[in-house]
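Here is the promised in-class demo. Please do not try to memorize the tokens; focus on the logic of going from shape to residues.
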């Protein structure tokens, strides 16, 4: 695995194992005052607000023997993604997700997606390949790139142990991101997620600092009483 971060302000996440929404690095982030959207495609389409997908030929797969959804989408964890929905590349090496500020208000500061499977490839062994994730800023500058090397398990029946999360955080805003497989046009993703975390204003900072100091004093007092 090789991780490159062209922007010093960007934080990268993954490739990391992912079988349910709580595995997301964003699951504990406080998006109060902003927004957060998780698209699991379980209604059969991409319809969370403020995002468009290119190319339009990519489509949502329904439950089937070759569908590879995130494991937890169909209820419990059973190591199989056949019972859920996933987004299929359908002849494309690259999927691009572009965010619309006229709908969202602000560009997302956190974006991510889960790669779930690859089938036939143009080079190498079927069921294996490199996955490249790239995120771009408001001026279309490259913020970060993550490359997962030789991902996959060689199987096509909905196995979920190989599913991997890719994501980026950049407080300057992310205008779009791409996920690609250079050696395949037959692959799937799931759990598109994006959110905006407001940056505390100067007026709020003294209060936040005060809360932190109070929490530190309380911890020290508790420790002294315990000793």
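The designed amino acids, position by position:
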């Amino acid at each position: 695995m090789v991780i490159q971060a062209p922007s010093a302000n960007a934080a990268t996440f993954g490739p990391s194992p992912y079988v349910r929404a709580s595995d997301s690095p964003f699951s504990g982030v406080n998006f109060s005052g902003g927004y957060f959207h998780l698209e699991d495609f379980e209604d059969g389409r991409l319809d969370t607000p403020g995002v468009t997908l290119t190319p339009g030929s990519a489509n949502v797969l329904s439950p089937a023997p070759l569908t590879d959804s995130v494991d937890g989408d169909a209820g419990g964890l059973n190591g199989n993604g056949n019972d859920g929905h996933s987004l299929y590349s359908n002849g494309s090496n690259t999927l691009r997700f572009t965010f619309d500020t006229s709908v969202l208000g602000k560009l997302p500061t956190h974006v991510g997606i889960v790669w779930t499977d690859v089938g036939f490839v143009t080079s190498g062994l079927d069921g294996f390949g490199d996955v490249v994730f790239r995120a771009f800023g408001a001026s279309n500058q490259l913020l970060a790139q993550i490359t997962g090397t030789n991902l996959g398990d060689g199987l096509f029946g909905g196995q979920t142990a190989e599913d991997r999360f890719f994501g980026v955080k950049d407080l300057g805003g992310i205008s779009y991101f791409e996920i690609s497989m250079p050696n395949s046009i037959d692959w799937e993703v799931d759990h598109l997620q994006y959110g905006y975390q407001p940056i505390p204003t100067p007026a709020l900072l003294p209060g936040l600092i005060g809360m932190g100091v109070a929490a530190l004093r309380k911890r020290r007092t508790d420790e002294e009483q315990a000793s």
